[in-house]
Amino acid sequence: MKRLRPFSYFEPAKLEEAVEIAAERGNGTYFLAGGTDLFVRMKRGEISPSTLINLKRIGDLNRIEKDPKGGLRIGPLVRISEIEHSPLVLSTQPMLAQAAGRLGSPSIRNLATVGGNIGRASPASDIAPSLMVLQARVSVEGPKGKRELEVAQLFSGPGQTILSRAEVMTSFLIPEIGPRTGTVYLRLGRREGMDCALVGVAALLTLSNKTNEATEARIALASVGPVPLRANRAEEVLLSGPLTEERIREAARAAGEGCTPISDIRASGSYRKEMVEVLTRRAISELFYSVRGEKEK
């Protein structure tokens, strides 16, 4: 670990003030949320901020609430443990609570925030794939005003987003889940709860009222590309006809073939591809039977 270099530190009470400070300070400015990743990177010498802006005094950024127009709205300063245990999240978006419960250790989840996790833009994020298949949108505010984006649009590369240095995420809006729809997040790691995902698969499946055909199918993957990514070809396979065992297997193969994992000290690229196929097949099979109210065969 390296000794930290001196930096300027601010604790604004209003969002407008935080944006103004960031715009004035320019490059080298970082927003502080939970700090679980930021401080580690600083101590390793990977980054050396000239300015830190702590967002924790801005009260409107740490809420979980129903949106007046429908859906669930989550502030970027909401801690991962709050998402994991929130009755509102558990009752309306159980996959998101499931993914939150798989992220890191309890001590990490008690500090880390959803905004910090998404803003880090890690390819191994457990939260991003779930938000992507739920079609979540993130509201952003900066010097040029407000804008809203799909979560998947944020990521431009490993550890990189399209946001400017002075833009702040203000909330995540997650639409309501429709009828005959199931969601699940499956994750493979070397040590339960202590290691980032070797492979993560988030899946959503909606079945027709009269047939075994899917009317919606969305799959997003973690740790198998430069950014969290959608398995588009696998989704197309699932929507192309009745959901037989063979079609589910074909979709799982397409998910594995469509990703580009690297080999590193934790796992080989070929192993990750194989596990994408395994977890995708398991996820879709689980959802198919659960939505139908049957036990998996």
Describe the structure.
With 297 residues, the chain is α+β, with helices and mostly antiparallel strands. It has 3 domains: 8-54, Uridine Diphospho-n-acetylenolpyruvylglucosamine Reductase, domain 2 (2-Layer Sandwich), CATH 3.30.43; 59-174, Uridine Diphospho-n-acetylenolpyruvylglucosamine Reductase, domain 3 (2-Layer Sandwich), CATH 3.30.465; 181-291, Enolase-like, domain 1, CATH 3.30.390.50. The chain is built from 11 helices and 14 strands. It has helices at 15-25, 38-44, 80-85, 87-92, 94-100, 106-109, 114-120, 127-133, 232-238, 245-257, 269-291; strands spanning 8-10, 29-32, 51-54, 64-66, 72-74, 137-142, 145-150, 155-157, 160-161, 168-174, 181-188, 199-207, 214-222, 229-230. A hairpin with a 6-residue loop joins strand 13 (214-222) and strand 14. Helix 9 (232-238) packs antiparallel against helix 10.
